[in-house]
């Protein structure tokens, strides 16, 4: 399967298989997982656990996501407030369904999903793996709408 031009890659601390199967259940799409045990590893600069995920890809559904298990003595910390994966949806019902699935799967609400001052609905959930997901549903007058007249905030892009 061809990879998209841009796809986030997450190095999990031994939980990639579980995480990607969970994400496929929540977001849908086609999942491919390759474990190190399926490949000859002679000559590798490290000896990976046979059940560790060498590479995983989730395409379609709501997201495109890639990743694998970090290998070595220093496992990465996935949880961070310096990034989030933003998913734009058409309805608040769609957003609430995804938020509920992440929370019921062991996640926690980081920011309640509600009407934001700029006119969109917005919220955040940290899933049980430490990944921060943000959800946005455009306001009544489109993305970035801030008032009843539909005037949005400046985005830095010119309209044609």
UniProtKB/TrEMBL annotation:
<dbReference type="InterPro" id="IPR029068">
    <property type="entry name" value="Glyas_Bleomycin-R_OHBP_Dase"/>
</dbReference>
<dbReference type="InterPro" id="IPR028973">
    <property type="entry name" value="PhnB-like"/>
</dbReference>
<feature type="domain" description="Glyoxalase/fosfomycin resistance/dioxygenase">
    <location>
        <begin position="14"/>
        <end position="135"/>
    </location>
</feature>
<dbReference type="InterPro" id="IPR004360">
    <property type="entry name" value="Glyas_Fos-R_dOase_dom"/>
</dbReference>
<protein>
    <submittedName>
        <fullName>VOC family protein</fullName>
    </submittedName>
</protein>
<dbReference type="Pfam" id="PF00903">
    <property type="entry name" value="Glyoxalase"/>
</dbReference>
């Amino acid at each position: 399967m061809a990879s998209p031009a841009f796809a986030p890659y997450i190095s999990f601390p031994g939980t990639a298989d579980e995480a990607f199967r969970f994400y496929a259940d929540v977001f849908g799409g086609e999942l491919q997982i390759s474990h190190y045990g399926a490949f000859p590893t002679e000559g590798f600069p490290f000896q990976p656990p046979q059940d560790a995920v060498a590479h995983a890809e989730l395409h379609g559904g709501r997201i495109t996501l890639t990743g694998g298990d970090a290998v070595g003595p220093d496992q990465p910390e996935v949880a961070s407030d310096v990034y989030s994966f933003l998913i734009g949806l058409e309805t608040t019902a769609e957003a609430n369904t995804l938020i509920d699935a992440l929370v019921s799967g062991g996640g926690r609400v980081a920011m309640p999903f509600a009407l934001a001052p700029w006119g969109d609905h917005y919220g955040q959930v940290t899933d049980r793996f430490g990944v921060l997901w943000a959800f946005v549903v455009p306001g009544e007058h489109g993305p970035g709408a801030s008032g009843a007249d539909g005037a949005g905030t400046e985005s830095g892009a010119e309209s044609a």
